[in-house]
Each structure stands twice: as structure tokens, then as C-alpha cells.
Amino acid sequence: MAGFNVRSVLVTGANRGIGLGLVKQFLGKSNPPEWVFATCRDPEGERVQELKTLASRHPNLAIVALEATDPASIKAAATRVEEHLKGSGLNLLINNAGVVKLNTLESETPETMSLVYATNVTGPLLVSQAFLPLLKKAAQGSNQKGLSCSKAAIVNMSSEAGSITNLFAWQLGQVVSYRCSKAALNMLTKCQSLGYEGDGILSIAVHPGWVQTDMGGSPSHQAPLTVDASVRGILNVLPTLSRKENGAFVSWEGKVLPW
Predict the structure, then answer these.
(1) Half-sphere exposure of 249 (CA within 13 A, CB side)
(2) How many CB atoms lie within 10 A of CB 17?
(3) Tens digits of per-residue pLDDT, 206-221?
(4) Could you give the angle at which helices 176-196 and 123-140 cross, rounded to 10 degrees?
(5) What is the distance between the alpha carbons of residues 93 and 51, in angstroms, rounded to a whole number?
(6) Residue 47 above 80 pLDDT?
(7) DSSP letters of 84-128?
(8) Given CB 3.0 to 4.6 Å as the disulfide criterion, which of 104, 118, 121, 125 pairs with 174?
(9) What is the Cα 157 distance to its own chain's centre?
């Protein structure tokens, strides 16, 4: 991670779990970004205190309201980030916000399917669309060749639970709506890689591992990975990615995963 120099990064769903872990480790780098944008639904809510404490110690951290299912909220967030950047672009967009509902094939409902899909697939689509001009600006202003996460990139936080080949941990939980949404997110990532490569933007889907978070909990099994270990792995993998990984699905350990 020491060689990972990124000027600006935005993380959605940053008030807890992997999102908060990413913010902490970016801020803790010896060469931290000039701007770390941490988004969450309600910056004044009860679950944002840890972010606020970080912001009081790190002037390069900006907390931004963003509801990933609300186009108006996304547009307002993009406007605010643009104001902070003062003419420069956004180098790294990490679509981390997501939800899971612990339903089975028998208990899934249209409402749950729609809610999970709206947050986990449509949300990253809309957020990426809103921040695309800033990502393009970062790519155009960079003297780096090829594609990289420090130049301009979209990182979609996916899950091996969405791998049709591996179908990670089916016996521990069916979570059908979540699995379907992550398979769709992987396809969105592939589409973005085809659509944005010409603009100098790298697009990648990342499986963070089975992590000890609110979302990663299981009534009968303890997730094996800490947030800290997962995020360290992710931040070691991101600087290694280039054009040949554009549109790929990789794990926190850098392994290419099957669709």
C-alpha cells in the first residue's frame, strides 16, 4: 500500500463496516489523499459519530450526504464534491454502500428484491453516472499512461456470493436477493469497463472476503476476516490493477474470481 498514491477518493456507505475501514486506512497512510470524501445517508445521524471524530482530526476528510437510491441526493453530493475539488477531478470512486436481507427462496418478496437491487445495483450505476465528469477530469489531467486506480477508477464492492460458479457459502445463508444483486453488479462493472475505458477510467469489482460487519454476520458462524485485514488487502490489491484487469472480478487477496 505504501506506493499507492491517490489524490482524491470517495467512499459510499462510509459510516460503518468496510466503508469506514477504508476511510480510516486512507487517512492513516503516510501519503494520504488530499481529499477523502466519506458519504452516508445522514451525516447528522447517530451512527456517524466515528466519522465526525475522524473529520475533527483530519481536515482532508469531508463527510457528504448521499442516499444511493435517491437521484437528487446523488446529484447534490456530486455538486458538493466538485466544489471541494476546486477544478480538479476525482481519482477513485468506491461504490461500497449496500444492503442484505436474510431471506430464502421461499421468503423472498418483490419488495425485498426491488429494495436490494435498487441499493446494490442501481445505486452504483447512478453514483458512477453522477461522478463520471469528475472521473473523466481526473483521467484527462493525469500524466499516467494506461489505466490505474490512482489515475481514475470505479471500484464496485461486490461479493463472491454473486459468483454463479462458486456460489459462496450457500449452506450458511441463501440471501437470494443479495446474490442476484451482486451478480448484476458484476455485469454492471463489465459494462462500465467497456463504456469508460476510452475515457481513461478503470472499472473493477472487488470481493472483500467474508468480513466481520453488521452485514457479514451469521447467527451460527463467525466471519473469519476482520475489517482491518480485509481493507488492508484491498488497498494492497488496488495499486496493482491496470488495463488487463479492467472489468475483472477480484478478491481482497488479488485473485481473479469466476463469474
Answers:
(1) 24
(2) 23
(3) 999 987 755 555 555 6
(4) 30
(5) 18
(6) yes
(7) HHTT----EEEE---------TTT--HHHHHHHHIIIIIHHHHHH
(8) 104
(9) 4
Is the distance from CB of 105 to CB of 174 less than 8 angstroms?
yes
Q: Is a pLDDT exceeding 60 seen at residue 1?
A: no
Residue type, 216: G
- Note the pLDDT of residue 190: 98
Instruction: Enumerate long-range contacts of 213-219, CB under 8 Å, 24 or more apart.
Output: 213/16, 213/17, 213/18, 214/16, 214/17, 215/17, 215/98, 215/99, 215/100, 216/17, 218/172, 218/173
Nearest Cα neighbor of 85 from 105, 53, 68, 60 is: 60
Residues 6+ apart with CB under 8 A from 159: 168, 178, 179, 182, 207, 208
Q: Are 205 and 182 in contact (CB under 8 A)?
A: no
Yes or no: say if 195 and 239 are a contact pair by the CB < 8 Å rule.
no
Kindly report the backbone phi and psi dihedral angles of residue 170, in degrees, each rounded to the nearest multiple of 5, phi listed first.
Answer: -55, -40
**pLDDT, position 168:** 72
For 169-193, the pLDDT digits (tens) are 777 778 999 999 999 999 999 999 9
pLDDT band for position 2 (50/70/90)?
Answer: very low
Tell me the CA distances in angstroms from 223 to 2, 98, 148, 217, 226, one per residue in order: 28, 18, 31, 6, 8
The rounded distance, in Å, linking the Cα atoms of 184 and 89 is 28
